[in-house]
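Quick start: read one record
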Amino acid sequence: MIAVALTAVIGVGILTAVAMARDLAEFDKQRIAAISAARRFLEERARHDLFPTLDPIEDVTLDNFNTPDASDDLRASLDLKLYEVNTDGTRGAELAAAPTNDDIVEVEVVVSWNRTGRLSSHRVTESLRTYVAPDL
């Protein structure tokens, strides 16, 4: 009887640990997809029209590890924020519009999405920052 109870407790512990590890692995996949989307967004803007709009992009698809099955893709939003850079290199005020001079600005892309699975009610964000000197 004690052996059966001990085996049951150990089995439940192992199943819980496996489920938690699976959730963490899925969340890491989602984070990588979000960071990749932010990087692609920044690279496209740096090559083309850098700041055509600062409005959030509400309907972005995060391809969850480039699988052919679209059922695991995530719906996300991208928010672009620009900040002045102070002379000492610290972050200054947030800009409400695209810069009108060629001073260096800090660019932040924030990606937000709802987690999948049993934690799907949780909204999470990842951000990517870089410095850009607009070529006006």
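The chain has one domain: 2-132.
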